[in-house]
Amino acid sequence: MSHSGLKKRRFFQPRTFKKVKRVNITTNRYNLHEYAEGTLGVGNIEQSVKLPEGENINDWLAMNTIEFQNTAKLLFQLIQERCTSESCPKMTAGPRYEYYWQEGKKSVQTTYVFLFFKSFANEYMNRLLSWVDELTEDPKIFPPMENDPFPKHFKKYVSVIFKRLFRVYAHIFTCHFRDIQDMGTEPHFNSCYKHFLLFVLHFKLLKKSDLEPLKVLNEKLLKNSKTESKKKKKKKKN
Asked: Which parts of the chain span the membrane according to its record (predicted)?
Protein backbone atom coordinates (compact mmCIF):
# COMPACT_ATOMS: atom_id res chain seq x y z
CA MET A 1 0.00 0.00 0.00
CA SER A 2 1.67 3.19 -1.17
CA HIS A 3 1.75 6.46 0.74
CA SER A 4 2.63 10.02 -0.20
CA GLY A 5 5.30 11.98 1.67
CA LEU A 6 2.61 13.84 3.57
CA LYS A 7 1.92 12.87 7.14
CA LYS A 8 -1.52 11.30 7.51
CA ARG A 9 -3.48 10.76 10.66
CA ARG A 10 -3.68 7.19 11.84
CA PHE A 11 -6.96 7.78 13.69
CA PHE A 12 -9.90 10.09 14.07
CA GLN A 13 -9.85 11.68 17.52
CA PRO A 14 -10.93 8.80 19.75
CA ARG A 15 -13.10 9.82 22.65
CA THR A 16 -14.19 8.64 26.04
CA PHE A 17 -14.80 5.08 27.07
CA LYS A 18 -18.51 5.36 26.29
CA LYS A 19 -17.85 5.73 22.56
CA VAL A 20 -15.96 3.39 20.27
CA LYS A 21 -12.99 4.69 18.32
CA ARG A 22 -12.94 5.26 14.58
CA VAL A 23 -10.10 4.86 12.10
CA ASN A 24 -9.30 7.60 9.58
CA ILE A 25 -10.61 6.52 6.17
CA THR A 26 -7.55 7.90 4.32
CA THR A 27 -4.93 5.92 6.22
CA ASN A 28 -3.13 2.63 5.94
CA ARG A 29 -4.66 1.52 9.22
CA TYR A 30 -8.10 1.95 7.75
CA ASN A 31 -7.04 -0.35 4.90
CA LEU A 32 -5.81 -2.85 7.47
CA HIS A 33 -9.11 -2.44 9.31
CA GLU A 34 -11.01 -3.19 6.09
CA TYR A 35 -8.82 -6.24 5.47
CA ALA A 36 -9.48 -7.60 8.96
CA GLU A 37 -13.22 -6.94 8.64
CA GLY A 38 -13.25 -8.73 5.29
CA THR A 39 -11.57 -11.86 6.60
CA LEU A 40 -13.84 -11.90 9.65
CA GLY A 41 -16.86 -11.35 7.41
CA VAL A 42 -16.30 -14.70 5.71
CA GLY A 43 -15.88 -16.45 9.05
CA ASN A 44 -12.11 -16.87 8.79
CA ILE A 45 -11.01 -15.82 12.28
CA GLU A 46 -7.69 -17.68 12.06
CA GLN A 47 -6.72 -15.79 8.91
CA SER A 48 -7.93 -12.44 10.27
CA VAL A 49 -5.40 -12.38 13.11
CA LYS A 50 -2.34 -12.88 10.91
CA LEU A 51 -0.19 -9.96 9.79
CA PRO A 52 -0.97 -9.21 6.12
CA GLU A 53 2.02 -9.68 3.85
CA GLY A 54 4.22 -6.60 3.55
CA GLU A 55 2.56 -4.69 6.39
CA ASN A 56 4.17 -3.12 9.45
CA ILE A 57 3.58 -5.18 12.57
CA ASN A 58 3.22 -2.13 14.83
CA ASP A 59 0.48 -0.69 12.61
CA TRP A 60 -1.28 -4.07 12.72
CA LEU A 61 -0.97 -4.32 16.50
CA ALA A 62 -2.16 -0.72 16.95
CA MET A 63 -5.20 -1.13 14.70
CA ASN A 64 -6.21 -4.38 16.38
CA THR A 65 -5.68 -2.94 19.86
CA ILE A 66 -8.28 -0.28 19.04
CA GLU A 67 -10.64 -2.91 17.61
CA PHE A 68 -10.39 -5.18 20.66
CA GLN A 69 -10.71 -2.17 22.95
CA ASN A 70 -13.95 -1.20 21.18
CA THR A 71 -15.27 -4.75 21.43
CA ALA A 72 -14.53 -4.92 25.16
CA LYS A 73 -16.42 -1.66 25.69
CA LEU A 74 -19.47 -2.90 23.81
CA LEU A 75 -19.53 -6.26 25.58
CA PHE A 76 -19.17 -4.60 28.98
CA GLN A 77 -22.02 -2.24 28.17
CA LEU A 78 -24.26 -5.24 27.44
CA ILE A 79 -23.93 -6.58 30.99
CA GLN A 80 -23.17 -3.31 32.81
CA GLU A 81 -26.62 -2.94 34.39
CA ARG A 82 -26.45 -6.50 35.73
CA CYS A 83 -22.97 -6.00 37.19
CA THR A 84 -23.66 -4.08 40.40
CA SER A 85 -21.91 -3.55 43.71
CA GLU A 86 -24.39 -6.06 45.18
CA SER A 87 -24.03 -8.79 42.55
CA CYS A 88 -20.27 -8.30 42.04
CA PRO A 89 -18.71 -6.65 45.12
CA LYS A 90 -15.25 -7.80 43.94
CA MET A 91 -13.55 -7.97 40.55
CA THR A 92 -13.29 -11.72 40.25
CA ALA A 93 -12.98 -14.39 37.58
CA GLY A 94 -14.58 -17.26 39.43
CA PRO A 95 -13.83 -18.25 43.04
CA ARG A 96 -10.05 -18.60 42.56
CA TYR A 97 -9.15 -15.28 40.94
CA GLU A 98 -9.56 -11.74 42.23
CA TYR A 99 -8.12 -8.65 40.57
CA TYR A 100 -6.99 -5.56 42.47
CA TRP A 101 -6.73 -2.23 40.74
CA GLN A 102 -3.15 -0.91 40.58
CA GLU A 103 -2.40 2.76 40.25
CA GLY A 104 0.94 4.54 40.18
CA LYS A 105 1.38 7.86 41.99
CA LYS A 106 4.46 10.05 42.37
CA SER A 107 5.83 10.37 45.87
CA VAL A 108 7.78 13.36 47.23
CA GLN A 109 10.97 11.76 45.94
CA THR A 110 9.38 11.75 42.43
CA THR A 111 9.45 7.96 42.33
CA TYR A 112 6.34 5.95 41.60
CA VAL A 113 4.44 4.30 44.43
CA PHE A 114 2.04 1.63 43.24
CA LEU A 115 -1.21 1.45 45.15
CA PHE A 116 -3.36 -1.66 45.11
CA PHE A 117 -6.97 -1.49 46.16
CA LYS A 118 -10.17 -3.48 45.90
CA SER A 119 -13.13 -2.27 43.91
CA PHE A 120 -16.38 -3.83 42.82
CA ALA A 121 -16.32 -5.27 39.32
CA ASN A 122 -18.28 -2.53 37.55
CA GLU A 123 -16.01 0.18 38.94
CA TYR A 124 -12.90 -1.87 38.14
CA MET A 125 -13.91 -2.37 34.49
CA ASN A 126 -14.78 1.30 34.12
CA ARG A 127 -11.33 2.22 35.45
CA LEU A 128 -9.72 -0.38 33.21
CA LEU A 129 -11.38 0.84 30.01
CA SER A 130 -10.68 4.48 30.86
CA TRP A 131 -7.03 3.55 31.49
CA VAL A 132 -6.84 1.87 28.07
CA ASP A 133 -8.30 5.04 26.54
CA GLU A 134 -5.53 7.08 28.15
CA LEU A 135 -2.84 4.84 26.67
CA THR A 136 -4.29 4.65 23.16
CA GLU A 137 -4.81 8.43 23.13
CA ASP A 138 -1.21 9.12 24.21
CA PRO A 139 0.63 10.24 21.02
CA LYS A 140 3.95 9.10 22.48
CA ILE A 141 2.65 5.52 22.65
CA PHE A 142 0.13 5.43 19.79
CA PRO A 143 1.51 8.07 17.38
CA PRO A 144 -1.41 9.59 15.45
CA MET A 145 0.58 10.44 12.30
CA GLU A 146 1.61 7.65 9.94
CA ASN A 147 5.21 8.75 9.57
CA ASP A 148 5.80 9.19 13.31
CA PRO A 149 7.72 6.31 14.90
CA PHE A 150 6.27 3.94 17.45
CA PRO A 151 8.03 3.70 20.82
CA LYS A 152 10.83 1.17 21.05
CA HIS A 153 8.91 -1.22 23.31
CA PHE A 154 5.50 -0.73 21.71
CA LYS A 155 4.63 -4.44 21.88
CA LYS A 156 5.07 -4.37 25.67
CA TYR A 157 2.46 -1.62 25.95
CA VAL A 158 0.14 -3.67 23.76
CA SER A 159 0.71 -6.77 25.91
CA VAL A 160 -0.24 -4.89 29.08
CA ILE A 161 -3.40 -3.57 27.42
CA PHE A 162 -4.44 -7.05 26.31
CA LYS A 163 -3.64 -8.48 29.72
CA ARG A 164 -6.16 -6.10 31.26
CA LEU A 165 -8.74 -6.44 28.49
CA PHE A 166 -8.69 -10.19 29.12
CA ARG A 167 -9.99 -9.51 32.62
CA VAL A 168 -13.20 -8.08 31.17
CA TYR A 169 -13.82 -11.38 29.35
CA ALA A 170 -12.76 -13.40 32.39
CA HIS A 171 -15.23 -11.63 34.67
CA ILE A 172 -18.11 -11.72 32.19
CA PHE A 173 -17.72 -15.41 31.34
CA THR A 174 -17.30 -16.57 34.94
CA CYS A 175 -19.77 -14.25 36.68
CA HIS A 176 -22.31 -13.27 34.02
CA PHE A 177 -22.58 -16.36 31.84
CA ARG A 178 -26.25 -16.84 32.75
CA ASP A 179 -26.89 -13.19 31.85
CA ILE A 180 -25.25 -13.75 28.45
CA GLN A 181 -27.48 -16.75 27.85
CA ASP A 182 -30.61 -14.89 28.97
CA MET A 183 -29.85 -12.11 26.49
CA GLY A 184 -29.26 -14.64 23.70
CA THR A 185 -25.77 -13.24 23.08
CA GLU A 186 -23.65 -16.30 23.95
CA PRO A 187 -22.61 -17.03 20.31
CA HIS A 188 -21.55 -13.40 19.85
CA PHE A 189 -19.51 -13.37 23.08
CA ASN A 190 -17.88 -16.69 22.14
CA SER A 191 -16.98 -15.40 18.68
CA CYS A 192 -15.51 -12.15 20.04
CA TYR A 193 -13.49 -13.97 22.67
CA LYS A 194 -12.25 -16.59 20.20
CA HIS A 195 -10.94 -13.78 17.99
CA PHE A 196 -9.24 -12.19 21.02
CA LEU A 197 -7.73 -15.52 22.12
CA LEU A 198 -6.33 -16.42 18.69
CA PHE A 199 -4.83 -12.96 18.34
CA VAL A 200 -3.00 -12.93 21.68
CA LEU A 201 -1.71 -16.46 21.11
CA HIS A 202 -0.55 -15.75 17.55
CA PHE A 203 1.47 -12.71 18.61
CA LYS A 204 2.45 -14.13 22.03
CA LEU A 205 1.00 -11.13 23.87
CA LEU A 206 -0.06 -13.04 26.99
CA LYS A 207 1.39 -15.83 29.08
CA LYS A 208 -0.47 -19.05 29.81
CA SER A 209 -0.82 -17.97 33.42
CA ASP A 210 -2.63 -14.79 32.30
CA LEU A 211 -5.26 -16.91 30.52
CA GLU A 212 -5.66 -19.47 33.30
CA PRO A 213 -9.07 -18.21 34.58
CA LEU A 214 -10.69 -19.27 31.28
CA LYS A 215 -8.55 -22.38 30.70
CA VAL A 216 -11.49 -24.74 30.08
CA LEU A 217 -13.16 -22.36 27.62
CA ASN A 218 -9.83 -21.70 25.90
CA GLU A 219 -9.22 -25.41 25.34
CA LYS A 220 -12.74 -25.87 23.97
CA LEU A 221 -12.49 -22.92 21.56
CA LEU A 222 -9.03 -23.92 20.33
CA LYS A 223 -10.16 -27.50 19.79
CA ASN A 224 -13.19 -26.30 17.80
CA SER A 225 -10.93 -23.98 15.83
CA LYS A 226 -8.64 -26.87 14.81
CA THR A 227 -11.66 -28.98 13.81
CA GLU A 228 -13.05 -26.15 11.68
CA SER A 229 -9.66 -25.64 10.00
CA LYS A 230 -9.45 -29.33 9.08
CA LYS A 231 -12.95 -29.23 7.58
CA LYS A 232 -12.05 -26.19 5.48
CA LYS A 233 -8.89 -27.89 4.20
CA LYS A 234 -10.90 -30.99 3.20
CA LYS A 235 -13.40 -28.82 1.31
CA LYS A 236 -10.58 -27.12 -0.60
CA LYS A 237 -9.13 -30.49 -1.62
CA ASN A 238 -12.52 -31.68 -2.86
From this structure: none
